[in-house]
Design goal:
This protein is 48% helix and 15% strand. The protein is built from eleven helices and seven strands. It has helices at 14-26, 46-49, 53-70, 86-99, 112-124, 132-141, 160-163, 170-180, 207-230, 257-274, 285-301, and strands spanning 2-8, 33-38, 75-80, 102-108, 155-158, 236-242, 245-251. α9 (207-230) runs antiparallel to α10. It is elongated, with a radius of gyration of 28 Å. Mean pLDDT is 85; it is low at 201-206.
Length: 303
């Protein structure tokens, strides 16, 4: 249904905004499936996680994988993290586009001095906070969202220090409307991302199609080798793989296993390439066998 990316400086009120947004969505009459994905979901300590680039990169990978697994047309996913790197926000946008859902960014806009003060206050209250060195590093590397970037658009902005954060905050009200509004052919103010070849998994790489293609071509290859063995070096003509498959194989010469393997590999590769711009490959064994037999007959018939 939608992916909401929370973005902001450390200690800028992101988690508070996330909770307010979640409550606002759950208060709607149409009960929605809302899920929050954040560091605490994986019991990660923020100071350990952001202490070095490797652990920070691993965190982004864990969050991205969880988002990818959770996205669907039936739920709203809220990613509550720094999301401070524009390249990472682009990756999340690509996940939303591949899923064919709505996407937006909620930015908690707070000046660094106020964030620094809030971080100190949290530490004094023995609440979750950042070490000074880590805090300053995160502030320095923060990449502010820009609504002109497609991966930062639409951009909803909160000003927690000036206006506070409530369920009734204008940005949250507008965001709730955006992710829940019913759309039709006349809707212009809500954009549902559409998958493209670049973002969706290639259709021919689906497990079922790959399995059936591999199994079917292997059966045809084995049948040819067995028929040639029984023919004692003679020609193999009119070979039928099964009674349910009327397509026959005609081979005008002896063909070795290495050549059959090469033809099989080429056939699978060509089928995969053509599926990018044409129909998907067959997902059943009989259709795959017929296609492979036709391909072999063309190859051997052209000699």
């Amino acid at each position: 249904m939608a992916l909401v990316v929370i973005c902001g400086q450390p200690c800028s009120g992101k988690s508070t905004a996330t909770l307010c947004l979640s409550e606002a969505l759950n208060d709607l009459e149409s009960k929605l499936n809302v899920r929050i994905i954040d560091e605490t979901s994986f019991h990660l300590d923020r100071n350990q996680t952001y202490a070095e680039m490797t652990s920070e990169k691993n965190l982004r990978g864990v969050l991205r994988s969880e988002v990818d697994r959770s996205l669907s047309k039936d739920n709203i996913i809220i990613v509550d993290s720094l999301n401070s790197i524009k390249g990472y926000r682009y990756e999340l946008w690509c996940l939303a586009r591949a899923a064919g859902i709505r996407h937006c960014v909620l930015f908690t806009d707070v000046e660094e001095t106020h964030c620094r003060k809030w971080n100190t206050e949290r530490r004094e209250k023995d609440e979750s906070s950042y070490n000074d060195g880590i805090f300053e590093d995160l502030v320095r590397r923060f990449e502010r969202p820009d609504r002109r970037n497609r991966w930062d658009s639409p951009l909803f902005e909160l000003w927690p220090f000036k206006d506070g954060i409530e369920k009734s905050s204008p940005a949250i009200v507008d965001l709730v409307s955006y992710v829940t509004k019913k759309v039709d052919s006349k809707t212009r103010d809500v954009k549902i991302l559409q998958p493209t070849i670049a973002t969706q998994s290639a259709r021919f790489s689906e497990a079922n199609s790959l399995y059936e293609m591999d199994r079917a071509t292997q059966e045809v290859t084995s049948a040819i080798i067995e028929a040639q063995s029984l023919a004692m070096g003679g020609l193999v003509t009119g070979l039928s793989i099964s009674h349910d498959l009327p397509t026959i194989i005609n081979i005008s010469r002896s063909v070795g296993l290495p050549e059959l393997r090469r033809l099989r590999k080429t056939f699978i590769k060509l089928t995969g390439q053509s599926s990018l711009s044409g129909p998907p490959p067959p997902s059943d064994a009989d259709s795959a066998k017929r296609m492979f037999i036709d391909y072999l007959n063309r190859e051997f018939g052209s000699e």
